[in-house]
Task: inverse folding
């Protein structure tokens, strides 16, 4: 008895046919997946925003070539033009004088700076002078008898002889007989020995060779001073010198007598000096030459730091710009039709912040201040047109 109908199943028994069907189904699946992926990607793609072109604003200047004075900057410390290192040539106790031997003490010309106890040595000098006096006295009777013409001047010499003063010069001997007679008695030898002792006695007192100030005192009153010992330093405060080093290329341009402008370190005071000496030798290591500038001013002190501006020469048909505007390739940026461009220039002189250049045509618009990220062809906008002026 049959209760229902059941459709027969299709069974593929051929293995080759099965493989073909599975391959077709796989390809269709892959194609469908690729199409679906493209559709999804296309649905998420957004349009790229348009980049706005940025035009930077620049500061410019109009070139006008003029004559640029080249100022050579130099610096150094002041030194007194006249200075003396005080040394002892004799030994003794440093005695107190009219003024204290201290740094900063003023002394006039010829005033005693140091006095060393000379009582013992002075006694030996007087003894030698007494011996000379006795020798001359012993020959006076013979002079009166044998050489009466010479007697009056030697008698006058003895009358003027003073033990407390320097030994006077011997009378002038005009004849050979007189010279032989005086020399034969040993008077000339004794006289020059006395003068030698007196010369050494004068070294117990050190006087000021000029008006000035004691800048260094290494001993005090009551100290035992030894021969060859440095006692201090003495300078004249009226005239100072500034030693500066200048590049050898300007050595022939520095003339003796040229005026030089000087300033102090704080730029608060200005002075005027003049070139008094130029060294004739170039320093091998630095290739510089030393020049000496003389300055007179009551406000100056030794050791002060000054900056000098030397007028070396004047360069015609040139301009002066900031050093950071000049590229390493000796080029500068110019503005042509609101676009940056480069031109070649010839540097003449470099200072700390400025550079003098040539071969820039008049009327050229150049950058007045450096621009970060600048390049040839960059579009720019001039901030403010300046009036034509000469670059100084």
Result:
């Amino acid at each position: 008895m049959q209760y229902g109908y059941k459709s027969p199943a299709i069974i593929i028994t051929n293995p080759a046919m099965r493989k073909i069907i599975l391959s077709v189904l796989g390809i269709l699946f892959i194609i469908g997946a690729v199409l679906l992926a493209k559709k999804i990607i296309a649905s998420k793609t957004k349009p790229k925003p348009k980049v706005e072109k940025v035009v930077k604003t620049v500061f410019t200047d109009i070139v006008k070539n003029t004559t640029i004075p080249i100022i050579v900057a130099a610096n150094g410390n002041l030194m007194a033009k006249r200075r003396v290192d005080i040394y002892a040539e004799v030994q003794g106790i440093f005695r107190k004088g009219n003024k204290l031997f201290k740094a900063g003490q003023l002394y006039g010309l010829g005033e005693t700076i140091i006095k060393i106890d000379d009582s013992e040595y002075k006694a030996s000098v007087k003894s030698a002078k007494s011996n000379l006096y006795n020798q001359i006295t012993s020959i006076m009777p013979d002079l009166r008898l044998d050489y009466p013409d010479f007697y009056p001047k030697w008698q006058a010499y003895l009358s003027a002889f003073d033990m407390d003063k320097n030994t006077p010069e011997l009378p002038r001997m005009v004849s050979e007989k007189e010279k032989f007679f005086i020399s034969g008695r040993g008077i000339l030898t004794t006289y020059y020995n006395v003068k030698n002792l007196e010369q050494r006695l004068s070294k117990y007192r050190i006087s000021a060779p000029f008006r000035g100030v004691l800048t260094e005192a290494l001993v005090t009153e009551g100290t035992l001073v030894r021969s060859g010992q440095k006692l201090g330093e003495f300078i004249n405060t009226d005239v100072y010198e500034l030693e500066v080093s200048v590049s050898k290329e300007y050595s022939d341009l520095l003339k003796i007598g040229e005026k030089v402008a000087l300033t102090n370190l704080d730029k608060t005071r200005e002075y005027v000096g003049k070139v008094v000496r130029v060294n004739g030798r170039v320093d091998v290591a630095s290739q510089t030459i030393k020049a000496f500038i003389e300055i007179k001013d009551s406000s100056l002190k030794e050791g002060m730091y000054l900056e000098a501006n030397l007028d070396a020469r004047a360069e015609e048909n040139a301009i002066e710009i900031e050093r950071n505007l000049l590229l390493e390739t000796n080029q500068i940026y110019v503005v042509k039709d609101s676009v940056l461009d480069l031109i070649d220039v010839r540097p003449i002189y470099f200072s700390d912040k400025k550079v003098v250049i040539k071969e820039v045509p008049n009327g050229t618009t150049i950058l007045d201040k450096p621009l970060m990220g600048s390049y040839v062809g960059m579009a720019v906008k001039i901030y403010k047109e300046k009036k034509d002026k000469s670059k100084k």
Remarks:
- The chain has five domains: 11-45, 58-70+316-382, 72-79+237-313, 82-111+208-235, 120-202.
- Residues 72-79+237-313 form a domain with the Elongation Factor Tu (Ef-tu); domain 3 fold (CATH 2.40.30.170).
- The chain is about 25% helix and 35% strand.
- The two ends are 126 Å apart (CA to CA).
